[in-house]
Design goal:
5-stranded mixed sheet, alpha/beta, about 325 residues, globular, disordered N terminus, 10 helices, 13 strands
Length: about 325
């Protein structure tokens, strides 16, 4: 299908400037150009880097500076005022309620959703029990309260230090001995083509991923019918089902960036989705994990029901 171009100027895809963000944006540009031949020419689709507050402030946890929405605020503004035409996001970093006038136009095929424990050079561990490689009292670098809570639930002896920055920065800090281990998303490592020998993937049963982890989402202006029609051409249907279910759960929980939350929709054979969600305290002293199963056609309702269940069974102060 080819939708006639309506613009003479290049279409601009807004993105953060990290190496991973640029890889994801260039992948989106290639997919859209392949689906729309009239956009395949030189300078028909271009990347447009936007500095975000979330990237600028690296010495504090996101919860202290306003939450993960700080990775998208300036990009939303550029989309609404017409400086860009699309915005490319790691969907896990995108708030569930978008600003008026912006919609999630499509999602791309999900990469590996798992987290990986990255062991420091002095450690070695078997793949079947990665946490056993961590000595008592080991210092683990992460800025994610979700990862921290799940780690401490299983290993309350561990110590946590804040570690932010892009993938390369975190790996460098680990090699320099800032901590003994860290955690990264497998999706980022895979998209960057990085084979990290000390990476130990953690199954969802051990470390439930962030909502929409591994999914790239493309936002667009709600009123731009032409561009919305183009994005439909590259939508990954399975990833959309998972994203909608997981984000529906997150919206019902309405937790702050200080509340450890996780959610993963596993698409099973015969049109079934198994949705697992988690709520915890940062120190791991409380952790609630629940699962709901239902048809893919009812994925959003399933996510909402799971969110309501988790909220009802958790201490009220977690959502204060």
């Amino acid at each position: 299908m080819n939708i006639a171009a309506t613009r003479d100027r290049p279409l601009r895809a807004g993105t953060r400037g990290s190496p991973l963000a640029l890889v994801q944006t260039r992948g989106f540009i290639r997919q859209l150009a392949a689906a729309c031949p009239d956009l395949a020419g030189p300078n028909r689709l271009v990347e447009h880097v936007i500095a975000t507050t979330g990237d600028a402030v690296q010495d504090r946890p996101l919860a202290e500076i306003g939450g993960k929405g700080l990775f998208a605020k300036e990009i939303h503004e550029a989309l609404l005022d017409g400086r860009i035409d699309f915005a490319v996001h790691s969907l896990k970093d995108l708030e569930t309620e978008l600003p008026p006038g912006i919609v999630l136009g499509c999602v791309l095929r999900r990469e590996d959703p798992r987290d990986a424990l990255i062991l420091g050079p002095a450690l070695d561990g078997a793949a079947d029990d990665p946490l056993a490689a961590l000595p008592p009292g080991a210092l683990v670098g992460t800025s994610s309260v979700r990862r921290q809570a799940q780690l401490l639930r299983r290993r309350p002896d561990l110590r946590i230090t804040v570690m932010r920055g892009n993938v390369e920065t975190r790996l460098r800090k680990l090699a320099e001995g800032v901590c003994q281990a860290s955690l990264l998303a497998m999706a980022g490592l895979n998209r960057l083509g990085m084979a990290v020998s000390q990476a130990r993937p953690l199954p969802p049963a051990l470390m439930l991923p962030a909502v929409a982890q591994g999914i790239v989402g493309i936002t667009v202006r709600a009123g731009d019918a032409d561009l919305r029609a183009r994005l439909v051409l590259i939508e990954d249907a399975n990833s959309r089902v998972a994203a909608d279910a997981e984000r529906a759960m997150l919206a019902r929980l309405d937790g702050s960036c200080r509340t450890p939350l996780a959610g993963y929709a596993d698409l099973l054979p015969e049109g079934t989705v198994r949705m697992t969600g988690l709520v915890a305290r940062v120190d791991g002293s409380f952790l609630l994990r629940r699962t709901e199963t239902g048809p893919r056609s009812d994925a959003v309702r399933l996510g909402m029901a799971l969110g309501d269940r988790l909220r009802a069974e958790s201490p009220a102060d977690l959502f204060a």
